[in-house]
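> example.struct
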């Protein structure tokens, strides 16, 4: 779409606000971001009859999965952590010939095919960054975009706003005593792109998320030395159990509707038989049961610890000029430290109260999606599931589309639905006692979450 001409087409009126033009897009809904969540949002809004304008700051689709994007967190060896059937959108399967865990470049190709199949490109304004989104009267939104870094700003008015700006691009940097005086190199995992960065180096990887474990495994093969620092012991689940992708086996067990304690017991037994006793490898004993932290799927980490290529170490207490001291008194002298310490959600274009952001910076939303402050504001993809996020965002954006439609077609019923639910922002969609940390802000069990979404949609549909 040509950003200079698009506002001149269709039945677009111009409103004046504080001396500046606001292009009225009528009942059109605005989507921010054309990553995996934004794309499915456009598709589902279109299928529910809405006009959609999507703004994407990059010049192509794919978000995190587009390695060309400067904010993409993927590295050369990134493969999906979730297996194919759980990763694909429910109405667009991945090719049968693809492996269980496709490479990131395949997943980008999949998103491109999805975009073309559902003809989504004509809705997307590429190279357009949303710099401000402000509520206007009657639930409308004034969205201000800038084309390019120094381009002119334009404001358009929309009937609804769906934010799909991703939550894996703004690095979280922990604070350590002495870090400023350290003479080695420190990078965040978002700046790690290829194994050559590790070759011949003495590498310390901090963090045991899936990215931290992947990088530690790569350092085990490329670096002269690799330390892996974790705050606690974790359960390292293999990617395959009984020859099947582990998430598929887990889902079979979930389908039996066994109580949580029994599923945890089964999982512990399976890990004992496949991975074995972690402490034998010198790894710390997990201080929690499975499902109480975000699952780590990595068949190689324990293997490389067992081969002496990764030295597990506890939390870093302080940096010195030449190295680090760990909580157990050990020291190391790495020349490269990789902070695989995760990401924080950021919504620079929205005032925090609009997303009910708490003192820690965590948005508190109904179903992790609907703003309790503004019924026409929703976020797509702000989820950290025990399986893949994409099929969940599909249903989440169906719910958003249904909700916006209900407001239009049956305002009284919409009002009563809203009164009943909008304050329910506890965000608990997980029967397990999930650890309290920023990493687990949006941690959900996919079955619990899907059931909650289904209930909400049924309630919206009742009587229609
Ligand atoms: C290394 C790694 C591996 C992962 N593996 C998996 C996996 O196997 N399975 C899984 O389910 N999940 C995985 N994830 C989670 C991943 O975040 C999601 O898969 C997915 O990328 C989320 O899509 P999204 O559209 O919500 O966000 P993103 O992919 O981040 O897309 C957001 C889009 O919004 C755009 N944008 C942001 N701000 C603005 C603005 N102000 N104006 C205009 N455009 C804007 C961005 O340019 C971007 O294109 C992984 C994450 C990482 C970091």
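> example.seq
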């Amino acid at each position: 779409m040509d950003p200079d001409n698009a506002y001149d087409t269709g039945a677009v009126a111009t409103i004046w606000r504080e001396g500046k033009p606001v292009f009225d897009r009528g009942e059109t809904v605005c989507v921010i971001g054309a990553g995996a969540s934004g794309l499915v949002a456009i598709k589902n809004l279109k299928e529910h009859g809405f006009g959609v304008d999507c703004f994407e700051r990059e010049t192509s689709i794919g978000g995190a999965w587009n390695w060309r994007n400067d904010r993409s967190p993927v590295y050369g060896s990134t493969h999906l952590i979730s297996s194919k059937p759980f990763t694909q959108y429910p109405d667009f399967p991945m090719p049968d010939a693809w492996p269980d865990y496709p490479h990131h470049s395949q997943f980008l190709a999949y998103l491109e095919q999805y975009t073309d199949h559902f003809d989504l490109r004509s809705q997307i304004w590429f190279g357009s960054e949303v710099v401000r989104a402000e509520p206007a009267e009657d639930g409308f939104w004034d969205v201000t975009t800038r084309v390019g870094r120094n381009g002119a700003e334009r404001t358009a008015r929309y009937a609804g706003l769906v934010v799909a700006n991703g939550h894996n691009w703004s690095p979280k940097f922990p604070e350590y005593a002495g870090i400023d005086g350290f003479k080695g190199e420190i990078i965040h995992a978002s700046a790690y792109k290829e194994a050559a960065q590790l070759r011949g180096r003495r590498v310390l990887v901090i963090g045991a998320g899936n990215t931290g474990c992947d990088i530690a495994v790569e350092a085990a093969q490329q670096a002269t030395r690799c330390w892996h620092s974790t705050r606690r012991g974790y359960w390292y689940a293999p990617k395959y159990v009984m020859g099947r992708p582990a998430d598929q086996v887990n889902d079979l067990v979930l389908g039996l509707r066994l109580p949580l304690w029994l599923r945890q017991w089964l999982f512990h037994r399976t890990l004992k038989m496949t991975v074995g006793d972690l402490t034998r490898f010198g790894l710390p004993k997990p201080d929690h049961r499975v499902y109480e932290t975000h699952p780590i799927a990595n068949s190689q980490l324990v293997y490389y610890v067992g081969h002496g290529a990764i030295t597990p170490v506890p939390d870093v207490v302080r940096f010195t000029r030449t190295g680090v001291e760990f909580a157990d008194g050990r020291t190391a002298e790495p020349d490269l430290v990789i902070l695989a310490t995760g990401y924080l959600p950021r919504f620079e274009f929205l005032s925090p109260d609009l997303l009910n952001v708490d003192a820690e910076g965590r948005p508190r939303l109904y179903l992790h999606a609907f703003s309790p402050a503004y019924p026409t504001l929703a976020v797509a993809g702000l989820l950290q599931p025990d399986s893949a996020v994409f099929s969940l965002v599909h249903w989440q954006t169906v719910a958003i589309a249904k909700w916006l439609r209900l407001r239009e077609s049956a305002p009284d019923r919409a009002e009563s639905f809203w009164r009943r639910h909008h304050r329910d922002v506890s965000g608990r969609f997980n029967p397990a006692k999930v650890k309290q940390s920023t990493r687990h802000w949006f941690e959900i069990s996919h079955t619990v979450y899907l059931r909650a979404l289904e209930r909400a949609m049924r309630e919206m549909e009742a009587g229609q």
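> remarks
Residues 32-38, 55-58, 63-65, 73-74, 78, 80-82, 87, 129-130, 164-166, 168-169, 211, 349, 381, 388-390 surround flavin-adenine dinucleotide (CB under 6 Å).
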